[in-house]
Amino acid sequence: MSKPKKKKKQQSGWTITGMIRITHWLPGWFIRSLSRMTAYANFLLDWRTTKVMRKNFQMCYPDLDEAAINVKLKNSIRHNSCLTKEFATAWLGGRSQIANMFDQVEGSALIDNILDEKKPLIMAVPHIGNWEFFWHWLQFNYRIIGMYQPAKYYGVEKLVLDARQRFGGQVFPTDTKGIMNLFRALKQGKIMMILPDQVPRMGAGIYSPLFGHQAYTMTLLHKMLNKTGAEMLFGCCLRNSNQSGFNVHIEAPSFEIRNRNVEDFNADMNRQLESIINRWPNQYQWTYKRFKRQPEGNDPYSFK
Prior knowledge:
It is found in: Cell inner membrane. This protein is an alpha/beta fold. The protein has helices at residues 3-25, 28-45, 48-60, 66-80, 83-92, 95-99, 108-116, 131-141, 154-165, 176-187, 220-228, 262-279; strands spanning 102-106, 121-124, 144-148, 170-173, 191-194, 205-210, 213-218, 231-239, 246-251.
């Protein structure tokens, strides 16, 4: 990378981290209101983010008419507008500030039972509610590990990495050495958190059905379960009804996770992800281009 480009990226990183710090300092009501106004402007002007959300709703809920999709869009915007302040708090907040945001926990006995049996555990946490807060809840209560992909800007990467390891968690890069360290840490009895609905790099996934469409889905989770003998649970951290705090939800897989081919495993995993999303559709990250990689090479998010 040339020196001017490197300097520009450093300056952009400082700007972004500065904005995150200001967001953390400003009152929550102000940031949420500002985020909501920006999101609604995006909706009214039908900018790219709204187009992505609309396309996702059209693909996942083909029976809905335009009016019903607009209702879903507005509900999703209301929840997405919370993320800006929430991420700033997750990355810069203190332990007591974050711990006080958890209201209820459902299903933690499932984790404790697995750990009592001295088995490794993988928590599959989709992009619903706030996954950064779920990571913190795990940090506060268990020995946990996870993966990270290097951020585009150094300052942002350092901020996020520091946050994810501040309360005892440990993260590894998604390279060969990092994956080996993950396997080793899992076998030592630590809990691994993974985002199962993330689009993997080419060669690291297969096409599996999700809401009736082909979605490029990771094979790493299936591989780790079978090579380490780990158990698996699903989890999410959901905003409560008045959006003043979070409820942690944990559930067991509704399918057999062991001794199966990856095609059947991924199909069943995506089916359970559908169930989770359908229970709390307003809190899913519909702005994510989940179907961007298609078998035919077309991109459903190529808007004119």
